[in-house]
Amino acid sequence: MSVPILKRFFGSYKRFQLTSSPQINLVWGFFLYTLFGFLLLMLPFFHKESVSILNHLFTATSAISTTGLVTVDIYNTYNFGGQLLVMVLFQMGGIGYMTLTTYYLLLTTQKLTRWHSSVIGAEFTIPKSIKIRDFIKSAVVFTVIMEFLGAIAFYVAFSRYDNMNLGETIWFSIFHSVSAFCTAGFSLFPNSFESFRNDGFINAIISILAISGSLGFIVITDLWYRLRKKTNSISFTTKIVLIGFLVLLTLGTLLFVLKEGANDSRISFLLPSFFQAMTSMTTVGFNTLPIGELSLPVLLMIIFLMYIGASPSGTAGGLKITTLTAMLAVLKSRLTGQKQITFLYRKIPFERLYVATSTFILYTSIIFLFTFLLSFTEEQAFEKILFEVASALGTVGLSTGITGELSNFGKIAITVLMFLGRVGVLTFGFALLERRKNTDVNSVSGDLAV
């Protein structure tokens, strides 16, 4: 392709970006990232062994969506270059489509264009109390600091074992630090972290990184404002996220211990119980227990935690704690006969309620639809299919062990779900159904009995 053709192509794409909505820009951005990663992963010099094109596409989508579901063993399929490429993809997916480029723009020009602000606003739900400029800076700086400290901690932890040389120890430390903070769930170990089930140090490293990433850059920025005394209190969003996260994590851990822990060893089972509840809710996707061997009630509990996820504007997927809170507020206000929708004595704006309601309906509908479709093509138990669908859309990466056994249709369906989960179901819906002009016409009101 000649230089003039390339110039025309990039010029046309630039005009497309400037004339398209933030949602369309976001979807196309992640699509191009995924396509670029997929094309690179297909290059033979990144491989240890040959796998199908569909598996490369699955891996690229899983990485850019920070999911962690895999149909092949990453360590045995890709060489160091391929593993590095996978890490770069989930680093880009974790920190966000526009975050790095916007941060570079702020460093070089100190200016933030309206286009950058609109796309960032579409990708992250940012409260009005937080400036986008401060949000971007804190997100990048916090990511670099946490991943650097995490890599050092992992190096100390892995150095205690004799099964890795110096080079492997350094590389495994960096890879898993980035994967944990971005809640990507990718591991170079064939059984995730099952071999480290009782290693409290490694469990703690992953938990700190995953919780820090999943709580969201909103929470981090808000707490940073509070520490620097730029504000007198933390925001309502931060309070809801912290309270909801602690409540759900505690309930999940207790149910795990009571159902899976033997009567004489429940104390020793507390660590793996906490870890699995944490990894489900933060959507980090690592596991220290074989998920396929868990009981049905615990599987359903994990599905619920994956369904909810953690905080908006973080690295975690899922419906989000704030969306669940909005739905509970609507229910409470309706049952108590209140005209205003409130939670913890705070009124929730209607525009936020509309977004939460739409997200809840669309998210739940997609889970039902894809579970229904996969029940036709996959010879697996219903709960395993539902688990896989919830894990993919929530960008979690946990699996009962059926990912590699999926049919080609099943792999394509899960690939689509992972992509939808990363860009956001509502964002994708906006991009798909957007109309540039207002198509509202004079409507006749009608009563609907509900």
Quick structural overview:
This protein has 450 residues and is mostly helical. Helices cover 65% and strands 1% of the residues. The protein is built from 19 helices and two strands.
What is the tally of beta strands? Answer: 2
Instruction: Note the beta-strand portion.
Output: under 5%
Please write the string of helix (H) and strand (E) elements: HHHHHHHHHHHHHHHEEHHHH
Helix coverage percent: 55-70%
CA distance, first residue to last residue: 59 Å
From the helix content, strand content and strand pairing, which structural class follows?
mainly alpha
Question: What can be said about the biggest beta sheet?
Answer: 2 strands, antiparallel
Query: Which stretches are low in confidence, meaning pLDDT under 50 for 5 or more residues running?
Result: none
- Number of alpha- plus pi-helical segments: 19
Q: Please state the overall shape, judged from the principal axes of the Cα atoms.
A: globular
